[in-house]
Amino acid sequence: MTQKALFIALEGGDAAGTTTHSHLLKGFLESKGFKVYLTQEPSQSKIGILIREFLKNKEIPPTTDALLFAADRDLHYKNEIKNKLEEGYIVISDRYIESSIVYQSVQSDKITVDWVKEINKFVGLPDITMILDINPKIALARKEAEDLEKFEDSSFLAKVRNLYLTRAKEENYHIISSDDIIEIVQENIQKIVIEKIKNLS
Ligand code: TMP
């Protein structure tokens, strides 16, 4: 069977486990013989590196964040993700457009979901978006206090969680509880992906 390309995005509030589960999913799919390309946002580009620096800086306006995340994604999709999909890879992105829709619109009343969609409209969309849902109090308990970035406080993360859940209902995204143990969460993710792959062939 020739492998068909598939674009998967893992999303969720801070410490929901998108990075852990992206790596585990990659290992699982490779063990089944699939070619997998794992990537993340902010990306490794110069824009991505700048964003990582700005994540520690509360003086950066939310609109600047939104525009930088959109620019980073534009470059990331066109120079990296699109090419890998054309080569037939399963691409897993640890965070993608929903992170911008959710985090940037929660950051400021002036930033609407529609505006974030507009500035991100030139990139391709994932075939599967999964939201790892976590209680913000559990999420923050998993983090070291000194490592916290500007988005990591519990009332902000509660808003992030609510908007992710609203978006999931609107767009029919998969919601996976990340309060469970890692093995169970990963198994639930794998089931969704395998089902999708079966439907492709
Ligand atoms: P990480 O903790 O998963 O590495 O992500 C970095 C932070 O950046 C996380 O708090 C979510 C935030 N973020 C946005 O605000 N907008 C975006 O578009 C992306 C990709 C991440």
Largest sheet: 5 strands, parallel
How much is the average pLDDT? 94
Number of strands: 5
Low-confidence stretches: none
Strand order of the largest sheet: 2-3-1-4-5
Say which molecules are bound, naming each kind only once.
thymidine-5'-phosphate
Task: State the distance separating the first and last CA atoms.
Answer: 8 Å
CATH superfamily: P-loop containing nucleotide triphosphate hydrolases
* SSE pattern, N- to C-terminal: EHEHHEHHEHHEH
Number of helices: 8
Tell me the overall shape. globular
Structure description:
Helix content is 54%, strand content 13%. The protein is α/β, with parallel strands linked by helices and 201 residues long. It has one domain (6-200): 3-Layer(aba) Sandwich (Rossmann fold). It has a five-stranded parallel sheet, with helices on both faces. The radius of gyration is 16 Å and the shape is globular. The relative contact order is 0.21. It binds thymidine-5'-phosphate (TMP). Residues 14, 18, 41-42, 55, 69, 95, 99-100, 103-104, 149, 151 line the site of thymidine-5'-phosphate (TMP).
Secondary structure blueprint with pairings:
Elements (H helix, E strand, L loop, with lengths): L5 E7 L5 H14 L4 E5 L5 H9 L7 H25 L3 E5 L2 H11 L5 H7 L8 E6 L2 H6 L12 H18 L2 E4 L4 H19 L1
Helix pairs in contact: 1-8, 2-3, 3-4, 4-5, 4-7
The site of thymidine-5'-phosphate has 13 residues, from helix 4.
